[in-house]
Amino acid sequence: MNDARPAGGVLSGLPAAVTVVEVGPRDGLQNERVFVPTEAKIAFVDALAAAGLPVIEVTSFVRPDAIPQLRDAEDVMRGIARCAAVRYAALVPNERGLERARSCGVAEIALFTAASETFARHNINAGIEESLARFAPVIRRAHADGMRVRAYVSTAFGCPYEGRVAPAAVCAVMEKLLALGADEISIGDTIGVATPTQVAELCALLLRHADPARLALHFHDTRGTALANVLAGLLAGIAVFDASAGGLGGCPYAPGAAGNLATEDLLYMLHGMGIQTGVDLTAVVRATRLIAGYLDHPPTSKYYAAATS
Amino acid sequence: MNDARPAGGVLSGLPAAVTVVEVGPRDGLQNERVFVPTEAKIAFVDALAAAGLPVIEVTSFVRPDAIPQLRDAEDVMRGIARCAAVRYAALVPNERGLERARSCGVAEIALFTAASETFARHNINAGIEESLARFAPVIRRAHADGMRVRAYVSTAFGCPYEGRVAPAAVCAVMEKLLALGADEISIGDTIGVATPTQVAELCALLLRHADPARLALHFHDTRGTALANVLAGLLAGIAVFDASAGGLGGCPYAPGAAGNLATEDLLYMLHGMGIQTGVDLTAVVRATRLIAGYLDHPPTSKYYAAATS
Known about the structure:
Chain A has a single domain, classed as Aldolase class I (TIM Barrel, Alpha-Beta Barrel), CATH 3.20.20. Helix content of chain A is 41%, strand content 16%. Chain A is built from twelve helices and ten strands. In chain A, α2 runs antiparallel to α11 and α6 packs parallel to α7. The longest helix of chain A has 17 residues. Chain A is globular, with a radius of gyration of 18 Å. In chain A, 58% of the residues are buried. The N terminus of chain A is likely disordered. Chains A and B meet through α8, α9, α10 and α12 of A and α8, α9, α10 and α12 of B.
């Protein structure tokens, strides 16, 4: 995925292909106020798979009362069609979640911690070290069952409680997760505060301690900088980016603001730059259209707005 | 404005400071469906000046029936407070427009042509060569009166009629405008289709034929790529960027879609990267808030949405 390709002018060394990890059904819908009916979620995931997205995070096996929007995790996982080319992933918080995920045939799990201690305590009710200790047996069991393990390091650029987060703190959590055996680490700008220089600086540090093939970037577009940050990530050598169809998700810390980077916007930019993804942008717009009618606001993707206006 | 500064990782050679050209009162309001009352326009321009924006394109001296949204050009120009630190500019289509602008004390004019022949014929009712011939006496007279002259080359990346526009076509128009004496050329992605590689390639070509100090970039955020394109422009050595407070303007070719790059989003990114602009971002949000109530839709700036939610 990291073959250098010729590019014009100052943008050199861009990857020839990028893996887009679709997180709309999980990270997106978990942060929407409405509950989307199970059948609509299934149709949405199937449409995303049909669009060619190589990885889809389908749902989250947390306690139903903690995230009621995803209380139908088992029904969604069992209801979707399984496309052989797609990796269907699910978030699990602990061993109990892993059991539930396995019972539905999940082949890849995602774990969630933070680079900010205060955010971790608020969001997952555990300090960073405690969360890592909890992950150790989950990763062992997942690997024993042949599952791939992805881990999120959230608030990697800024925290709603602590403000700016030090790159060294992010790097320390990443290294511990890699030592625990996580296959891929997704570095998240959870509140959408990052700018490209910060991305370049953090990536330069992380890549001194990790193979680029094991790193992903997860941007939120709360202040409009997500695609510029993707460009900084591409220039640093990262070739895996998370995105959410339609920009589903909003920002829980700024109601009414944009949240996840929209898959459509990411694809439009990558394809325009000649970077392959294997994803059909028009088909992603169709998938978003399927779910848009269930939301209480229009999707925040600018490409989607332009394509459907 | 082009002193190289140290920057982290892969982003090197970024300018230390950027000039933001505020085009909301002209390019923004001209593309809104509503007529904003004259007093509100005046308060908006005065608030933008108070925010520290160094250049404000205030209005357009075209025929009032052509752009009724700006039919109060004289009243706005005469009503605004004049801040000594601000260059107040206005668009003029011809010598008659120049006369009107001069009668109101405009110190900088903007001319508008295109890199696409079909777009020029549709938008300014003249082919490119005809528009340049019309500009020649305007530029001479403006310079004789001590006015600065800026020229827009619109549809520099794509055209709603012709599709992709060749960089050589943009370069040819730029060179003719420079030969006519235009002080600054603003290269415009009028329909918001550009991606960073295209920006890098076009800038590399243009900078072989022009001093970077005479070039500006004007992006629309119709597909979400504007800030990524700004980053590509910064890396190429451009240090003047146009933007519109709140993202005012929409896109006439995709109703409901975003138009001009939002000044707030641009400032957030530049300041986060340590690039100075001299502009107070919070004060720009206040200016947008002044005008937002007159529009028939919320401002499209993502930073504005986050800051006011």
